[in-house]
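Handout, section B. The chain below has 175 residues.
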Amino acid sequence: MIYLQLFWVFFKIGLFGFGGGYSMISLIRTDVVDAYGWMSAGEYADLLAISQMTPGPISINTATFVGYSQAGLAGAIVATASLCLPSVMIMALVIRVLFKHRTSPYVLEPMRIMVPVVAGLIIAAAVLMCDADSLGSVLSFAILAVTIVANMFFKVNPILLIIASGLVGYISGIV
């Protein structure tokens, strides 16, 4: 039964999660934390941190980790494959139609409309992560502020910021 649930949850997210991995975060959280209770909000926040630091798309990493946590290696495979399956199916169809009608307003207008929808999904993911379990401390806000300043004003490499933030969080957990 868990394999069918994993398939349905991640197939649905793959089908309706326009805009890439970050726009899918809120959709995944809604099912994983709220609907099925497979993990707490704090565990999901930790999972997202690991998914962001792991090479590859965040949504695929998250699906893989959720699937593995629920049903081992087979669950990881089911969750990952079902997240990707809608994209593969849709792209096969879209490529044929899009290249044939690429200058049509019927193709251009939906693409223009999707931009604010994707932005809204990304903002929703950020807002959902702003709860007591996820942020929790003054240190979290300090890391956030330093990271924003370092990235925006000093153009520090994001990979270095991820590593430094992880180290600060790890060290603070030990102390």
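Note. Residues 2-131 form one domain. Compare this with the example in section A.
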